[in-house]
Amino acid sequence: MNWFLITDNVVSVVLVFVFWTLAHQNSGGREPLARTIATGYALAAMTVLGSMLFHNLDALASLIKYADLATKIILAITLGAVANRLGLLYRPD
Questions:
Q1: Range of the structural domain that residue 54 is part of
Q2: N or C: which end of the chain has fewer CB within 10 A?
Q3: Phi, psi of 2 (to 5 degrees)
Q4: Where are the alpha helices (DSSP H) in 1-91?
């Protein structure tokens, strides 16, 4: 195990914890799109876990690029929903 893989695993675990926290903070809210945003964060956490698994198992290494692409797509949709929600909640007068 090299330093890159160790660092990648540590960062992945921290990122999953952050996504998990954000998902739980948004899941109980009454704001618009709260559950959609929470689902997006949960899916992003799962794709980061998948990417971490693919980095550690050589047989699945070819799937890393797909997990990374899925993470980016999910984050783009989730952050778009966050921006939309902020626009709905804080409309300029």
A1: 3-89
A2: C
A3: -100, 175
A4: 3-27, 34-56, 64-89
